[in-house]
């Protein structure tokens, strides 16, 4: 009942309410990022959702498209603007995903939708993270976000799949608010964002 009816309905109302109350933030953020990026304020990328179905995820764009002499993108830390840094640390960059929730591609809470290129790299257990819709926040995000290893992150994702409930979702949402206020887990230990997943050894 919760997974198939109550949670989707709650996601819909939460997304509509969130869009209504954050509209001023959207406007200011879009203007600031357009200036800082010298281009688009939005970032759209294909991501796998429930059962691996591909959808287009929308976020605020926090990095420029600056490239080196060979045409390769500069490292993340070199492309992350001051405005982008604030938007990331405050998690404002995730707000456009409310549209993904309205379209039925995502949920408020669930494993984070990652890159399509990671799909063939998951082992059988890790791939179970796609048994539910991806979320704006999740059990892995409130337990370390980018500051934990990929393997630990996937363990948290599978734990959520097996224990999804109203009370766990409420706990994750409250912990998300606390983590945003404390600005914890934004970066990994060696990167401004998170190193790419290259597959597990086991």
Task: Explain this structure.
This protein has helices at 2-37, 76-79, 82-89, 97-102, 150-163, 166-182, and strands at 42-48, 54-60, 106-109, 134-137. Helix content is 42%, strand content 11%. α1 (2-37) runs antiparallel to α3 (82-89). The mean pLDDT is 90. The chain is built from 6 helices and 4 strands. It is of the alpha+beta class.
Compact overview of the structure:
The protein is an alpha+beta fold and 202 residues long. The protein has helices at residues 2-37, 76-79, 82-89, 97-102, 150-163, 166-182, and strands at 42-48, 54-60, 106-109, 134-137. The chain contains six helices and four strands; from the N terminus they run αββαααββαα.
Tell me about the biggest sheet? 2 strands, antiparallel
Overall number of strands: 4
Mean pLDDT: 90
Give the fraction of residues assigned to helices. 40-55%
Shape: globular
Strand content: 5-15%
**Order of strands across the biggest sheet?**
1-2
Low-confidence stretches: none
The oligomerization state is: single chain
Distance between the termini: 36 Å
Task: Give the C-alpha Rg.
Answer: 17 Å
Order of helices and strands: HEEHHHEEHH
Q: Count the helices. How many?
A: 6
* Backbone structural class: alpha+beta
Domain Bacterial sugar transferase: 7-182
GO molecular function, one term: phosphotransferase activity, for other substituted phosphate groups
Transmembrane segments: 12-36
Pfam family, one: Bac_transf
